[in-house]
Amino acid sequence: xxxxxxxxxxxxxxxxxxxxLLVLCVILAxxxxxxxxxxxxxxxxxxxxxxxxxxxxxxxxIVRSSEDMPxxxxxxxxxxxxxxxxxxxxxxxxxxxxxxxxxxGFFSTGVGSxxxxxxxxxxxxxxxxxxxSLDNATFMKRFLAPLDLSIIQNLSTTEVLxxxxxxxxxxxxxSVVDENGETSIxxxxxxxxxxxxxxxxxxxxxxxxxxxxxNEANRVPISPPLSAAEVKNNLMAISTATSKPNVVxxxxxxxxxxxxxxxxxxxxxxxxxxxxVAEPLMSLDFYLPPSAFCGSVSNKVKxxxxxxxxxxxVKxxxxxxxxxxxxFDFLGxxxxxxxxxxxxxxxxxxxxxxxxxxxxxxxxKAESVPLFIVKQNPGSGVDPLVRLDYLGKTYVIPxxxxxxxxxxxxxxxxIVTLAxxxxxxxxxxxxxxx
Length: 434
Fold this sequence. Notes:
The protein is α+β, with helices and mostly antiparallel strands. It has helices at residues 2-66, 103-106, 137-144, 149-156, 163-170, 196-208, 228-233, 235-242, 295-303, 324-338, 361-367, 405-418, and strands spanning 74-94, 114-133, 171-177, 183-188, 211-221, 247-253, 259-275, 316-321, 348-349, 369-370, 375-376, 384-390, 393-398, 431-433. The chain is flat. The model is unreliable at 1-13, 305-309 and 428-434 (pLDDT under 50).
């Protein structure tokens, strides 16, 4: 009899052991699943927060510029996340003896007996981020300075980027300068200027001629011309000189193409603006010098003999670029124009893929696409891409039919990021948001 009691007790122990193991497995599987899901949710929430934060910051400062208010930029230098999972398990039994009067029956379950298994799982996750102000001298010096050619080179290397949109944002003016340094033509990229349509036509020619930034090699002689014998007799000194960075021994060729002498030169590279295609600029009433064209195109222009036997003068083109601050002011003017209660106007740009020869001002009006669209107090019928409330007004960039607004935000975000040089973001946060 006692053997039967022991066997029954072992059965109960095995039953609860299996149940406990099953509960533990379920909890551990749940922990892994919830941990993964929790981390994914936190990462997604952070990405959405940063995207919304960046877009709001850009639109806020464009609107501030349109209202003639000071600009102010914020940044998120760090994000800290934390999470915890607390599992728990429980098991209980209510046993009713089948025959309480007998020893064996006392350990036998009867009607009304029950088993209860329970599992609990507590999940907690959160993240905090620091918010710093960029209102300091280090950031502002870069923010107020005109864009240098290295930044423009970085911005214009993306093939999918619409070059017409980029140059419509960053070019301040286009001037024509004669050989005496006097300016004969100056077109300003200002939508309030009555000659603005002519600037747009000039911009089309620049884009069609593939205006870009090229690294040009500059060679500065650091020795007089040396004969072959002098080079041979001074091999040790020449070897020491050429071992220094960017110092080379360059042959000087005669008319037959043979080296007649040699010269030590310091080679360096500097970015310069140039055109890749000459034909779109042939309709101008002046000629650009071959140095205005990139690389091998410069030799092509020389071989075309466009500089001789013609009445057209040779002039230079001067392109002035905006500072990041000027770009925000320009976009603020765009917002003001299109929300003018009396005579609203949209600043538009001809897409790069529609640029062709013989375009007129009427063609521009028919085929151009709005550069940047911000609707003021649009009501509830507009699905917003970015929405902002400022000084009692609501500003919305529509999600649909917004022209090049997405491209403008992308370029603007890159320009502001490039202005964040080392030291512009404070090490200590200005605001801690939890």
